[in-house]
Amino acid sequence: MTALVVDDSSIARIHLRHVLQKLNLDVYEAGDGKQALELLRSGLQADVILLDWSMPGMDGDEVLSALRADRRFDSIRVVMVTTESDVGAVTRALDHGADEYVMKPFTPQIIIDKMRMLQAREITRTLSRQAGR
Amino acid sequence: MALAAAEFEYLKQFVRQHAAIVLEGGKESLAELRLSPLARQEGMASAQQLLERLRHESFGGLHLRVLDAMTNNETWFFRDLVPFEALQDLVIPALAAARASSRKLNIWSAACSTGQEAYSIAMSLRGHFPQLQDWSISILATDLSLAALQRAERGLYTQLEVNRGLPIRYLAKHFLPQGIDWQLEHEICRMVEFRQMNLAEPWPPLPLFDLILFRNVLIYFDSAKRREIFRRLRRALHPEGYLFLGGPESTCPPEAGFERKTWATAVYYRLAGAVASGSSPEGKQNEPL
Question: Mind listing the domains of chain A with CATH numbers?
Fold first, then answer.
């Protein structure tokens, strides 16, 4: 499984990389939304994107909207990583196509659980498709 | 300072006798870590002093608080996820069909701790089964720890707690920020009844349950107590009911009278020879177990 971490903070990217690599994910990084989209459009096959919500320039919401407008990226799961704790922000993210969220500050265990949640959902979706459900 | 051998031995006997919990050797430091805050709250200098007081007082509130401190209350929303997907795709639809005439469901979340499992069930029902909205659905959530139950009843969770395991759509739909915490909406809180119960002691009269979640608690009991609990579970589960255990303990011994079933990667149990839907008595009260 391949993860793309998108965050303007190098410390945040290091933190997430460390956690995700413990789960045996291949981890790529982008320091802003524009770079993230360039990586994906040039062929990076990411399974999951951990997307910081508040970034200068192109913010997480704009990146998410661009991703969801491009059918090539339909299968990519997006986890918004946010300092925001209001329901409006979460609802907006959900409406724009986020699959999950993580609120900062977070512990490594939370990231691990979110990744497992996404994997479990994929497994049951696959099994349901196979069973014709 | 870790507990001395004699102190730890006393504690081991105490938790085994009163909660059937098996405390393994090597946990002396952990025990001290758990008991020291309680000791300070009670005005004592150390865990050692606390244990000394336990020895000399008759069983009461302090003993219960020690049991509380020694139990593992870890839980989170939609823990392990797949059992909840099994509920959504298999169990609840089957039970809804089986109970179409009575329109009643009895659900038990045992060892519920701070309530996240029970509330996860409630949110799933609300979100995926609106047709059951006017059914009589009882979700009973029990735990040994009064402190955990009090927290559960409030439905107020920290950011870390909602961060862990709660799918985004449920956060958006059922929670509101309250300061730095998150408050579960009253409509969901109302769906769950919390009650104190010691699984190691004789069980009070309970209804027959259509669904029992007995997860991540058997591991704390020795084999004799586990066998006894399986006997009680057999009597507490409706003939058409479903039992879920926790991941590490999803091996129910064959002699317990349950059949192991799977759905996707979820494991669940039904009573051996479970009848087809619609033909079993409903609402029968159990004798004390």
Answer: 2-130 (3.40.50.2300)
**In the predicted model, what is the mean pLDDT of residues B194-201?**
93
CA atoms within 13 A on the CB side of A35: 14
- DSSP assignment string, B175-188: EEEETTEEEEPHHH
Contacts of B163 in chain A (CB under 8 A): 102-103, 106, 110
Please tell me the total number of residues recorded for chain A in this structure: 133
pTM, two decimals, is: 0.85
Residue of B nearest to A108 (CA): B164
Domain map of chain B by residue range? 5-70, 82-271
Give the whole-angstrom CA distance, residue A50 versus residue A13: 9
- Burial class of residue B75, CB neighbours in 10 A (0-12, 13-18, 19+): buried
Q: Is the pLDDT of residue B281 over 70?
A: no
pLDDT digits (tens, 9 = 90+) for A65-74: 999 999 999 9
Out of A90, A109, A116, whose CB is closest to B171? A90
Is CATH 3.10.290.10 the classification given to domain B82-271?
no
Distances (CA, A) of B183 to A93, B25, B69: 20, 39, 25
Q: Which CATH architecture does the domain made up of B5-70 adopt?
A: Orthogonal Bundle (1.10)
ipTM: 0.79
- Say yes or no for a CB contact (<8 Å) between A100 and B76: no
The number of angstroms, rounded, from the C-alpha of B121 to the middle of its chain's C-alpha atoms is 12
Shortest distance between the Cα of B13 and any Cα of chain A, in A, equals 33
Answer whether B93 touches A (CB < 8 Å): no
- Give the residue on A whose Cα is nearest the Cα of B169: A94
Residue A30, classed as helix, strand or coil, is strand
**Cβ neighbours for B65, distance < 8 A, ≥ 6 positions apart:** B38, B42, B147
Q: For residues B289 and B286, what is the distance between their CA atoms, to the nearest angstrom?
A: 8
**Mean pLDDT, to the nearest integer, of A75-82?**
92
Q: Which of A87, A113, A128 sits opposite B165 (nearest CB)?
A: A113
